[in-house]
Structure formats: structure tokens, C-alpha cells
Design brief:
Helices cover 29% and strands 40% of the residues. With 174 residues, the chain is α+β, with helices and mostly antiparallel strands. The chain has one domain: HORMA domain (Cell Cycle, Spindle Assembly Checkpoint Protein, Chain A), CATH 3.30.900. The strands form 2 sheets. It has a 4-stranded antiparallel β-sheet. Strands 1-2 form a two-stranded antiparallel ribbon.
């Protein structure tokens, strides 16, 4: 979107770059808050942070990132205890409204949840559309099953042509 200012100086603002940057920051804010609220060890997420952020920049720019999942489970179980998934929607018409991550809503909701069983761990998985650029550092993985007992959708966040929404699903381990 070109902007004309005094003395015919032209400044270009790249809405896509701003949208991608905002969405990446919101996703990382949400993931860190989930790990904190659920009293999980942040070391894994902090170690993955650069790869995850760089990958999201690529896939959001090419509009192939469909979702980012933080999956909580007991390591020996084939089932997940909780899924915290951010799903993305893309639009051809930029929206000038800035919608922040629903961090406060997440905090209030997390305060109502029971504690996780001892030994609970998590991993982060990404879901990309066919044809997405291959980014080194990622390998194919399969989600663990989840037997849903509770579902919650949080408010949307985003800017420009990209929106995200956090979805929570709790399950029981059988």
C-alpha cells in the first residue's frame, strides 16, 4: 500500500510482512503462555523457537501453514491429554483491524483446568498444505489420538490477510 507524504516522498508498507510478523509473534506468545500455564518445561519450546519462527515466516508468506499444534501427553501413551492448536485462515482482502492474541482469555481458561499428571510432556507439530516449501529441521510426524471430552475455541487474532484461532481439546488417556 503506497503512502504519499509531504514533498512527494513515497513510502511503501508491506502489509503481508507486517501480518506475518504479527501472527508469528502471537503464536509464540500463545505457545509460551500455554507452557507456562500448564506448568510444562519451557526448554523444549525455547530450543525450538528459532526453527519454528523461521519456518512460520516461510509458510505464512507462501500461505501454506494450516496449523501449529502443541500436543500434551504422557510419553508412554498413544493418546494425547490436550491439544492446543492454532489454525490459520487467509484472505485476499486485507483487514486493517489489528486483533491481538487472546492471551488473557487463555489465562482465565487455563486457571479452570485441572493439573496435568506427573510426567506430562509436549511436542509441537505443524501442518502444512501440499506443495509447501520443505524446511530443514522438520520431519514427518503423526498426531496422537485424542478422545475429546472438552473443546474450547478462543477469539481470532491477526492482521491484514492472515487470521489465526486457538482451539483447545482435552482428552482422556485410555
Amino acid at each position: 500500500m503506497p503512502v504519499v507524504v509531504r514533498d512527494n516522498v513515497r513510502v511503501d508498507t508491506n502489509i503481508l510482512l507486517k501480518a506475518v510478523t504479527m501472527v508469528v509473534n502471537c503464536v509464540m506468545e500463545l505457545l509460551l503462555e500455554i507452557v507456562f500455564q500448564r506448568r510444562l518445561d519451557p526448554a523444549y519450546l525455547l530450543g525450538l523457537r528459532k526453527l519454528l519462527e523461521d519456518s512460520m515466516y516461510i509458510w505464512l508468506h507462501e500461505r501454506t501453514l494450516e496449523g501449529v499444534l502443541l500436543e500434551v501427553s504422557l510419553p508412554e501413551s498413544q493418546n494425547a491429554l490436550e491439544n492446543w492448536e492454532v489454525v490459520f485462515a487467509y484472505s485476499d482482502d486485507p483487514d486493517a483491524t489489528v486483533k491481538r492474541a487472546p492471551t488473557e482469555e487463555l489465562k482465565h481458561f487455563a486457571a479452570t483446568l485441572k493439573g496435568l499428571p506427573p510426567g506430562s510432556a509436549y511436542r509441537v507439530l505443524v501442518r502444512v498444505a501440499p506443495g509447501a516449501k520443505v524446511v530443514p529441521g522438520w520431519a514427518s510426524a503423526t498426531r496422537k489420538n485424542i478422545n475429546p471430552t472438552v473443546e474450547k475455541h478462543f477469539g481470532q487474532f491477526g492482521y491484514g490477510t492472515i487470521n489465526g484461532q486457538l482451539r483447545y481439546t482435552a482428552g482422556i488417556v485410555e
